[in-house]
Structure formats: structure tokens, C-alpha cells
Amino acid sequence: MAQAIPVLGLEFWLKKAQEWDQTVILESQKDVCLHLPKLQEFLQQVYETLKHMSPSAAVEQFPPIGQLLGRLCENKFVVGHEETRNALIHCLCCLQSSEPKSAVELAANSWVKNLLCHLFCSSEAIGHEENQSINKIGCTTVDYHSKLLKNTITSWIKQLTKPENSNSENKLSGDNIRALSIRCIPILTLPDLIPLLEALLLYHGSEPKEVLDDEFLDRVNDAILRKKILLSESAVLSLWLRHLQSLEKAVLDLFQRLIAIQSKSLKEMEQIINDSFLVQAAQYPSIFRIIDNIFRNAILESDGNIKIITVVRLFTHVFLQLYQKNNTQVRFPLKAYFPHSNRSLVMALIRRPVGLPPDVCLAHLQSIIRMLSPVAKETRSRGSVFEWFLLIHFGDWVDIAAELLMTSESESADDLLWLLAFYYNPWNENEETNRTMAASRSVYERLLPLRSSASVCASKLQTLLEEEKRSACHPCTLQLYRHLFIFFLLFSPDWHVTAKEFIAHMTQTQEAAREVSDILARTVWRLSIPGMKTPKLITIVHELLHDF
Amino acid sequence: MPGKMHTLLENLDRYIEVLTLSQSVHVKDWDISCVRRGFEWGTYFQQVYHRFHTNECLRNALEDHLRSKNETLSACIKNYQYITFNDLRYSKEIFCMSLLQNKALSKDIFQYIVRQLKNLSSGEISICSMSNIMCQKAALQLLLFSSSIASKNPLENPCVVTQAEILKNHLENRIRLLKGDHQFAVVADVLSGIPQPSVYKILAVLLLSSETCDSQGQVSLSHLFLKWLLENDSAWTDFCSKINCHLLSRLSSKYVIVSKAYMDFLIKVGESMELDVHGKWVSSNAELPFNTFRNHFESLMNTSEDLRSATEAKLKALKSQDGDYDLPGISIWTDILLEVKKIVHL
């Protein structure tokens, strides 16, 4: 049992504690802050070992333990961190003998008692002569510290928000502010501190360099993402505008959470996006473009992972909802968010399809395709990548194109098929898109005659799919096939029993299952709009989704 | 109901006595069950606070009762700490802290309390919210640093401002039902207990931030503070020497009585000044060199139009009393006028 305290650890921390005695030095303070999580972990390990030992055995086996704990108790940064302080208290309690026998044990007991009193009691002078007078007023001073803390914080805020040109007496220097930001690290989650954190984040001095410590910015961002603190929107925005790493972390954190929940409900994902505050921050074009850039990289690096594409689509949707709602503040033009894209194409894609009759939808889609195809058909052009990425944001129109293909006798089927082919396979030159298109046309043409039959059996569809798969096996083309087959079944609601059977056949690989589930989930999300009459279809899709 | 109230007040009396005893040597005879009962009563009175703090009638009754209990106890206990109705909200914390700070506390009880406190973060119901107090204390140790926060100006010094807040609440509560001289006696008693120069800084903050001015009919706390400061010559001299001249000027423009007393103080210092062999004005009171002395007048001239003209008139009158010399180096008042004119462009 005794071996549980890594002896090396004990020596390492003792050396650290000695170095940290110089807490007047900023770098040393920062070093404490950097080590706090590890120290807390170490102290917990120590406690787990000590609690099974008698105090004298503990001191015998680990002679430096008393020196280490004593030094740590004197360190404001260590004691300031609640979890570390509690671990320290637990360790100290283990060194107290309940039945002291020797003089050494008696002395140890009184030493521990003094340290514990030092940690528990608030009567000790904070280090200012003025504090001594408080005890002479003749009243209980149990709320003295809460009042003093409030006033101290107010005083810092007053100094941080002093106008630039005000009297320079007592004006805070950049070094002062950096020191203050480091001192906030151990106590970040203290509710009283919130106004000060906000004032620090909103502080902009005349210095060209960042005055706030990067570790502070990092920890604040972490605390915000872990929902340990709740700061005002303007403070969070200011953090992300001044500290790029924090913004990147926030976006990655959102990705992680959205992927981790593995939700089949886009509504739930939408809620998470909304809560992340990134949508609000993205109303600033510079932030939007950084987020969008991260999205683009994520899509490229994941080879167009369907889940990530759905995240981008959802994020854009929530972003636009807020953008369009915003009538009060000065609104930036849309061009500022999509600087590389054709403005009229952006305007066309932004149009919400909800409630539009099919023929209007079709006409609108055709105008989108007219704008998109000339750019897309330029071989290896930068433009085609940008326009494809733009289309990803507004994937609803792609779903509508697939829906129209399967529900109406459209003369413009070729256009719609091209849009789908471009959406699923934009990468390799034009030729590749053409091949995908040809393959999907063949599927479409074979599905079309089946639409008029009263019933379709799953095995027939299976044969059809297998045959087509044999002729064209590019994975992108396969994705398109799945989309077409599912919409074919969904929008002929009498066939939902067939749909169940067929989907079971189609989703034997994990990847296919993910894709199909995503198509179903976004169909529910797209069509479940108040006022739209599609309850039967939605019930069916829900049922199908449930099977996953 | 009257019966219930009677029991409540009796229990309150006992509990106040327990809180008082927890600070005394008598705790050496306590056992763990005493302490446990102390915490249970603490819980009870915290509930009393939460139930009645918005009920004015009951609250007043409890406050009045506490006031007389406090007076009785303070008469026979040195350094007695008053317990107010608001303190009941923290009754367990007061009890816990008194015990932990008590040197006479037995080892067993100490370990009992520490055992309880140890679990305060583990989600169990702890005996009191010491965790909160510890967090605040730890935060203060981190945030109270650098000269920018321990400002010389007491109005910007959070320690002084907080003490002023606490002193004000304490005194207001104590003198609420007292009349005339008794009020002053209490104020004087408390103020004399606070070490100098803290007491002056606290008073400067309270006098400058109080809203009540001279014209109000009712005797305000500010009046009692001023009476205490002005009644005692050495207190007033100390106050004027320890407090920054800008604050003294602001006090002068707020209170007529201060403006007069302040000028008297300055005249007295001026009259005590003599020229040394180098031709410099030195005061027998070495704490106030000529430059500092001059700053007092400059600040008076810069504070308000009224103060400026009154100060100038006073200086001119003093100068003519002294023989109305225009040459420097003969009368202190001539020299002060010359210096002040340089800066404020009279």
C-alpha cells in the first residue's frame, strides 16, 4: 500500500513547492497555475495512500510529506484552487493522531491544527493593516470577506474601465493586468468573480500586444465550454475575437459534442448549436469566416463525412435564422460572410423553401443550377470548390431536387440529376461528375416506371440496386443511389412496409446505415415545420429511424 | 401565538449565550454533543431568518429583543461581538468560526469539526457553508495585491470601504432606539476602540459617501462622527494630518462645520511655522513641511468656487493681520498666497 505514493512524485512536488515560494514572480505564479490539475491529482493519490496509514507511519515512510503540505498551505495559488485546497485538507487530516502518545505526535497534532485553522478560518489578516481594525468594531464579521471581495472586485473593475484619457494616477499598467489575469486562474469558477472576468475580457488598452495571459484566456474558454461559468455574450465574443485558439477550440468542441451524442434528431443538434453561442458570435463576419474555414477543413479532411456535412447545414440554418431575425443592430451584408461566392447564387440558396409550391421550387432550383453549372464545369477551377462548399451549406435544396425527381414528371430531370451528381461527386474533374450523373440517370430511369405500380416488392428493388452497383462502384455514386432509393420509397407512402425491408437490406454496412439514418433524420427535420401537412410521412420516417 | 413567540425569544437568548460562550475559555468543558446541538440550533435560527426576514413586524420584534440582549451581554463581557438579526443567517458559520479560532477548544471537538468540514465538497450535507467563506478568503488573498488596489485614497481602497460599510451597519443598528447623548456615547465608544489611522480613513469614507447633509432635521450618523472628530482637539489634528488634502477639501465643501474647523487647523499650523537658517518655512510639527502645507491651500482653491473665494479672502485677511507685506520671506500667509497664485492663476 505504501508504494502507492510515487516517491519520485513527492520529490518533484517538493522541488516545485520550493520554487513556488517565489510567488511574487509572475512566471512562478503561472507555473503554479499550469500545474494545478496535476497537483490536485497527486494530492488525491497521496490521500488515498495516507488514509490507510497511521500518522507516524506516514511520516516515517515519506519524511518530506509534512514539509510539502506545509509549503503548499502557504501558497495562495494552491490554496485558492478549491479542489486542490480540499485535497490538501484531506491529506492534513490524515497526519493528525487521534490518540497522540509521544511528544512528536503532540507537536505534529498542533502543527496540523494550526494549518487547518489557517485554511478554514477567515479571521486572519489578509495582509493589510486595515484589517486589524475590523475586529475592533464589535460586531461579528462573518460576512466581512464576502463584502470585501465584492468591493475589491468593484475596485478592479473601476480601474479596468477607466477611460483611456483619464488621470493617469493609479492607472493600471499592462503588467498589472496580466498579473491580475493570472491570479484569476485558480478561482475562475467562483461566482463572485464573473463581473471581473467579463471586465478583463472586454478590456482593450492602448497596448498593441495582448495584455491578458494566454493561459488565462485558455482556461476561461475551457470553463465556458464546460459550462462551469456563464459569461455575458459580449464577453465571450470578445474572448473569441482576441484569442483565435479559443474560437477554434469552441468550434471543435461543438463538433465533438454533436458527433458524440449520435443523435437521430436534428432538432436536438440544433439546440446544441444554439446553446454553443457560436451562432451569435458568427454574426460577426470575421468570426463566421473563421468558423467556416474550420468547417471546410473538416469536410476535406474527413473526405466529406456525412455527419460533418449535416453539421454545416444545420449551423448555417441556425445562423441564418438569427441573421434574419436581427433587425435591431447594424447588420453586415451577406457578401461579408461569403466573400468568394457569386452574390446572386448566395441570395438564391438562402431563400427558404418552406411553403413554396412544387413548381415554384422547381423554377427556383433551375435558376440555381443555371448559375452553378458554368462555374462547376470549369475543370479544376477554384470556383467550383467554393461553389460546391457553398451548396453544402444549403443542402435542403439538394434534398428538394431529389424529392422533385421522385414526385413529379419533370422535364428538367437532367438538371436535377446533375445537381445531385455535383453535390455527391464534385472532386475529380468534370468527367467524374458526368459519370456519376450517367449512372444515376440509369437508376432514375429504372425507378420511374415502378412509381405507377400499386406495390413494389423489396427484392425487386434489391436486384435493381445490386445490378446498378455492379456497373458503377464509385462510393460517391453509391451515396447518390441511396438517396434516390430512399426518396423513391418515402414519397410513395403506401410502400412503407417495403421501405422497411429494403432499408434493412441496404444498410448492412455501418457507413451505409449512418448515411441512411442521416437522410431520414434530415427529412424529418426539413418537413416537420408547423403548418406543413405531412404528418403521415413523418410518422413513417420516424418509424424507420427508430429501427436504427 | 404569544406563547410561541415567547418560547422563540427565550431560545434566541440561549442561543446568543451559546454563541458568546463559543468564544470563551468555557468551551474546554464542552463535549461533542454540545457542539452538535449548537449546530442544530444554528440551523434552526437560519430557518428563522429565512422565514421572517421579509416580515417586518416579526423582524422588528426580534431585532429589538436582540438589541437589548446584546446590550446586557456587552455590559459584562469585554470585546463582546454584537449579533444582529441579519447575522442569524450565518449563525452556524459564526459558531463554527468562533470554535475554530478558540485556543481552548479540545482536541476531540476540533477533530469532530474538521471531520464535518472535510466532507464539504463531497456533496454531503455539510454542517455549514464554510466552503463558501474559504473560497472568498482564498480569492481575496489572490486579488488584493499591487499598489493599485491598496490605494492611498481611502475611497478607492476596498478594505477601508468595506470596514466603513460594516461600521455603519453596526452603529445604525445600535443607536436606532437610543436618544441624544446615548447615541453619541455608543458612537464614541466604538470609534475609540478602532486603531488609528484606520478610524480616520473609515470616517472620511463614511462622511464623504453619506447622503445626509447638514440641513436634515434628524441627527444623522455623520453628525455624530463629526461631533466625535471635532470635540477632541487631538483627534481633529490627527485626522487633518492623516487624511489627504483633496479629501479634506471635499469634506469642507460638503460640511460647513468641517470647512471652519479645517481652516482653524491650517491657521494653527501656519502660525507655528518659522523660517529656518536657509530661509525655508519649517513647522514645529515636523510632519507638515511647507510643500504639503501649501498643497492643502491649493486643493481648497481647486475644489469649488465658494471654497476658493472663502479661502482667498481668509488668506488675504491673515496676510493683512500679519502686516500686509508683499515681499516673500516675512509672513507665511504672504508666501502661501504668492505660491497659490502661481498655480491657480488668481
From TrEMBL, chain A:
One of its GO terms (cellular component) is Fanconi anaemia nuclear complex. GO terms for biological process: cellular response to oxidative stress; interstrand cross-link repair; nucleotide-excision repair. It holds the Pfam family Fanconi_C. InterPro entries: FANCC. It comes from the Eukaryota. This is FA complementation group C. It comes from Xenopus tropicalis (Western clawed frog). The lineage of its organism: Eukaryota, Metazoa, Chordata, Craniata, Vertebrata. The gene is fancc.
TrEMBL record, chain B:
One of its GO terms (cellular component) is Fanconi anaemia nuclear complex. Gene3D superfamilies: 1.25.40.490. One of its GO terms (biological process) is DNA damage response. This is FA complementation group F. Coiled coil: none annotated. It comes from the Eukaryota. It comes from Xenopus tropicalis. Pfam families: FANCF. InterPro entries: FANCF, FANCF_C_sf.
